[in-house]
Batch of 2 targets.
Target 1
Amino acid sequence: MTNSSLIRQVGAALIAIAIPIGAHAATPADLQAAYGALAGTPAAPDRGQQLFTSRHGREWSCASCHGAQPTQAGQHASTGKPIAALAPAFSPERFTDAAKTEKWFRRNCSDVMGRECGAAEKADVIAWLRTLK
Amino acid sequence: MNRRRSFHRCRVVAIVLLTASHATRADDDQRGSVAPLLPKYQQECAACHVAFPPGMLAADSWRRLLGNLPHHYGADASLDAATVNELATWLGANAGTYKRVREAPPEDRITRSAWFIHKHDEVPGAVWKRPAVKSAANCAACHTQADRGDFNEHAVRIPR
């Protein structure tokens, strides 16, 4: 599946669940719902945490850069550059733009897992991050 | 005769001063503190590392980097084609042309350029390995104004 077609599908899923969509109009709950609709299963926060904090046969986990508790700033594992907290309660701009969310899932799942993440995995991760207050 | 000699001396001094000021400017160009950064470049490239001034690397290097973003020094930095084109055009137009930047360094790494190694030759090897520094690519660890494209020595604070 190409990235642009996935973004279109997420957009379509957002429209399907009657959420107004614009370039920056989404909320983390919208995006989780859109990925969940694509996956056809409800999101599970504990699975999201497991995915986020585990290594997947490679050098890095998501937590290598974002921290195991992404309520605080992380640090890029190779460059050392600070990364703002990933949990939306601590960084309100997180998961508010479908295209940006897709871009980072694409890149970071590739680095951590050597493949793209599926819609269910993305829904799980967002669901877990939304539980962090 | 004496007047002519002193005029000649003045001319020599003037030429030396002009040359020196030109050399200073060329040196500044080399460190790239001049060109304002393209907002898209700042947005896309400075998420993971400092926005390296385009003048720090040769056009050939930038072209290769932009052509291989999914494999970017061990990380996937892929972008959509339109953004890659926009960045490639701007980086190509603002790439380094000063004599020591004109040639592509090994692996297209700024940190392996002859000028970079020369500029940092007084920094002990252990400093680069400190947790607060981590990597020679982490300019901002010591160059406190790096995010503004200012690499002036006076703003250097080496963390302990």
Target 2
Amino acid sequence: MTHHDQHGHSQGGVHAHISSTGMYVTIFFVLMICTILTYAVSTIDLGAFNFVVAIGIAVFKASLVILYFMHVKWSQILTKLAVVVAVIFLLILLLLTATDYTSRNWLPDQPGWEKHQVLR
Amino acid sequence: MSDTNTMAVAHPLPEEHVAHQFHDAQQQYESGNLGMWLFLLTEVMFFGGMFGAYAVYRAWSPEAFKLAAATTNVPLGAFNTVVLIVSSLTMALAVQSAQLGKQKRLQLMLVLTMIFGAAFLGVKAVEYSEKWHHHHVPGLNWQWEGEGPREVQILFCLYFAMTGMHAIHMVVGFGIMLWLLMTARRGVYTASYYNPVEISGLYWHFVDIVWIFLFPLLYLI
């Protein structure tokens, strides 16, 4: 454990958190267990919940990678903000697309619109 | 999590590593990090468009998704998921080695990361050739005897677009690792200057995260 406090203004080095090998290996094993869990759950028929569970586990795995492997847990506030903004932008993209897709059928069919039988 | 064995260190930085526009090494380090995250933000939107298309077409024809997913090779996809997580671990340890100034360990971890990255691409090539063999390549070699050829074909288009763009990112990542290894062998990276290793690691982990979502969406459900 070394604590140099030479974080000066003119020179000085880089202050950054250094995680232990044990922590990285722990996160690795949690990711592996989650992968096995993802596969195990997919073999059980939960109906629509299969999708929810798979995405839920994937989001949890991605969060672990972002926080620990990508060091965001110890990053400066601006970096954390960039990560949150990325998530918000992605949600805007996906949710606004979803509002369009789900509300299409609320309108009566317009002349010229072709009906196509879709495999469901 | 066992965070107890962590430490904050600071090392004097050779002056030549601080570019003139930065106040000090810390500002340079944080600016580089933030810049990489802004690039990753654009990458999130890039892949996000394809995930959006996936969501719409999945809602459009869920049955075709089940038919298409049933043709994917789950053991190979699972193997590749494990390979990528291992490569993320070696990448994280490469950054840690650079932070601690362990030159040999840094080079070893970069080589391991490249080996796992290459293994991933090799398995992907096997999967693609399987798809070609079964005539499941839209536009080039397409034949579907079962139900809903039109809907299923769209899903295979998404499969190739998403895994293909991911594979291209892997190839780019492999090139970055090669460059890091060559510069690391010259001893460029020290405990006080390792920004390139760290932000290349961010890229590698991002590509891993994309696959974390692709595997269940394209293979399992």
